Amino acid sequence: MKYAAFALALLPTAALADPITFAWSPNVQTPQVDMALANDYFTEAGLDVQLVPFASGREAFEALLGGQVDIAFMAEFPAATGALTGQDFAIVADLSRYTGSRIIGNAPIASAADLAGKRIGTTLGTNVDYFLSTVLKDAGIQAEVINAAPGDLVPALVRGDVDAIVPFPTFYAGAADALGDHYSELRPGGYAPHYVLSATPEMTDARAEELTAFLGALVKADADVAADPAKAAAIVSDNLEGNVTAQSLQAMWTDMEFGTILAPDLLDLLVDEGTWIAAQGVVKADAPTASTIAPYLIEAPLAAVAPTAVTLD
């Protein structure tokens, strides 16, 4: 696994009164949050962080837009939609990047060309749909794309209803178990999901000091994850109630890059996704540009605690 290390500026730890509602549930992508909670870094920073679980990042983002939470964790794709539709929010950090996106089949897939004319299941209107579209476009081929709910994709592949699937990463292990010797995968590259934090306008304005302290706690936890990934995996596994073992987590993390940053590749991805969303007609809007998306990435809070982590300019 890869880690990013940054110099952490010292901030005062005076108590800050109002609680911060944080839309986050235990997951495999954000060990720095688990570490910050385990080591009381939020409390040390004078923060009262209250966790609010959601079933998906999209739901967490909707809660943020509705003012139900202050900060939300999610993949970057809902943010691309939000920016395209002019919603009022900010991306304040990119916690991790996943480099293992794959297409799974029940027969060998040697290259993207093998997908031509095949029935491929995915969940339309999501980042995995975007990923599949880019793979097909880059290979210059067409396939029959079939919409299915995330939990229905692996059973459909096992039954033979489809020839391949593009599920969310949380379903990869289940697909391998269900297919056994028939499992095949293709990792074509080209798309790395980013797992980001979005915040309300109040957090980036009137409560900017608290947001900076919140991000400072995560940057501090980044160093702990880098120093002892085995301990981090044990803590995350415990928070996942043992549903994913520490050993399995460390294996998964070979495809993860951890580190709280804001970098140009996130901006580029949001522009490309926004262009794809507009072209699909999912949202009636003009294709975005870097200049229309950039204002949604707010640098100051993270730059205050980890100046070298922000490389957007």
Automatic annotation (TrEMBL):
InterPro entries: SsuA/THI5 (IPR015168). SUPFAM superfamilies: Periplasmic binding protein-like II. Residues 1-17 form the signal peptide. It holds the Pfam family NMT1. Keywords: Signal. It comes from the Bacteria. The keyword Magnesium does not apply. Residues 35-232 form the SsuA/THI5-like domain. Coiled coil: none annotated. PANTHER family: ALIPHATIC SULFONATES-BINDING PROTEIN-RELATED (PTHR30024). This is ABC transporter substrate-binding protein. It comes from Falsirhodobacter algicola.
